[in-house]
Amino acid sequence: MKSKRAFFFSALLLGCALQIAQAQSELPGTFTVTDERASEEISEDSRLYLDGNLVATFRLGLSKSRETKTILLPAGRYDVDYALCGEITIMHNGHQETHQVSSEGQLHHPEGHTLDAVGSNNFTDFFLVDYNDPSVATHRHGRAAVCATPSS
């Protein structure tokens, strides 16, 4: 009788341990995104979306040149679509210009990685990159649909 109880108790403990391990493996991962103001930039307001949901906002200016955010991945997801949207004001030939920037792409297993928000093409394209592992972020040129400003 004692051995049956001991077996039952051992099986119960093992079952609990397996459930805890499974629950921990399903916890969402995190990654970081750093946005840094370029020397030509006066200000930047940008938004990061994962799978169409706003997950971070960055506001840079003359008094704040860099911001890093920790991003929570959707539970159980390893590949997610992203979009970066925003407005960047630059000084060009002595005049201020404001550019609407947006683009989209996909992140592949970004958990634990540090990505940079990068502008290119005279601040008209805006995307994420991991300089240590370029396979983490793919970039599709063109405007991101989630960034479209609704008109009334």
What global shape is seen?
elongated
Structural class: alpha+beta
Major sheet strand order: 3-2-5-6-9
This entry's quaternary arrangement is single chain
Number of spatially distinct domains: 1
Number of strands: 9
What does the main sheet amount to? 5 strands, antiparallel
Share of residues in strands: over 45%
**Helix-strand sequence:** HEEEEEEEEE
User: Roughly what percent helix?
Assistant: 10-25%
> What does the average pLDDT come to?
84
Spans of at least 5 consecutive residues with low confidence: 20-24
Tell me the number of helical segments per DSSP (H or I, 4 or more residues long): 1
Radius of gyration: 22 Å
Distance between the termini: 76 Å
Question: Your description of this structure?
Answer:
Keywords: Signal. Residues 1-23 form the signal peptide. With 152 residues, the protein is α+β, with helices and mostly antiparallel strands. The chain has one domain. The chain has one helix at residues 2-25; strands spanning 30-36, 41-50, 53-60, 66-72, 79-92, 95-108, 114-120, 125-129, 137-140. The chain is elongated. The model is unreliable at 20-24 (pLDDT under 50).
